[in-house]
Target: Tissue factor
Amino acid sequence: MASLNTLFYLGVCLSAGILTSADENLPKVQNVRWVSVDFTTVLHWTTTTSDYRYTVMYTGNEDFWSESFHCHQMSETACDLSTDLTMNSTYNVQIKTVPVPEDDLEYDDELDKFPHSYSPPFNPFKDTNISAVNFTVQAVDERRVNVTITEPLSGVHKGDKQLSLRDIFKSELKYKISYYKFGSTGKRDIISDSSTAEVSELNAGQSYCFMVAVLIHTRPKSTQLGAWSAQKCLPGDEMSLGAWVGAVVVLLTFVVVVAMVTVLCCKCCRQKNPSQSSTPI
Ligand SMILES: *[C@@H]1O[C@H](CO)[C@@H](O)[C@H](O)[C@H]1NC(C)=O
Ligand SMILES: *[C@@H]1O[C@H](CO)[C@@H](O)[C@H](O)[C@H]1NC(C)=O
Ligand SMILES: *[C@@H]1O[C@H](CO)[C@@H](O)[C@H](O)[C@H]1NC(C)=O
Ligand SMILES: *[C@@H]1O[C@H](CO)[C@@H](O)[C@H](O)[C@H]1NC(C)=O
Model:
């Protein structure tokens, strides 16, 4: 049966002509994979030879394929599709292997006859990774701090404006703030709708550490949470300065007390000694 199929396809190839069979021998690209952070989305692939060029085509929910303008008969093995994949839909991409163009020859009319590999499906709204955010912590009083998060930007531009993740996810974008008492393992979390949040009911005089990550509940579990930021602790440097001042005050007090005790003792001694020394020998 298999050999019958082979014979059949061999027959088809032969009858279709030698040119077509040569095109079908172009190697397909391999290991097609996405790398996407904050909507900057790059498709990577590998190839065994550098003898060919690649043309990238994509489709969202449409029933046609669009060509990516900047990934056209290219020799690189990566294509930045950030400006092409802008909708909240699942995209499929094909990478066509085409011959190196000679004399500005374009293959657009005959793209169908070149072999292609497919990417895994990709939806930037669901699948792009979200990077760590930047934030500051400020003490409000002994038991409350303010956490202020820098609104994270995306790799998407609309006209001149670089869109923030808030512009894209709107009210779906939240922040998870995780904090713990310095030196303890118990963590507590709060979810904030906005980029400024107050954390209250802290123990006065205790040091706390904070971390922040973007949280989008409407995304799949594996991408709901962005990368965690580096932690920031409060009181930070002010505390160690305070501790130093405290230590110096304690030391000074100790010195003063020792000095006073010494002085008092000497007075006592002198009051006793004159009576002794006044005794004639
Ligand atoms: C997102 O990050 C994870 C973990 O680092 C990685 O395995 C995955 O490939 C990344 N996805 C994209 C689309 O970059
Ligand atoms: C975070 O913000 C601080 C203060 O605004 C700044 O000095 C620092 O460079 C920022 N870090 C990052 C990774 O953006
Ligand atoms: C803390 O945040 C609140 C509201 O978010 C604001 O009114 C207040 O001024 C902030 N305090 C400090 C010390 O930043
Ligand atoms: C993207 O589409 C999904 C499914 O329709 C929807 O649940 C989600 O809210 C959309 N996200 C954004 C940011 O538009």
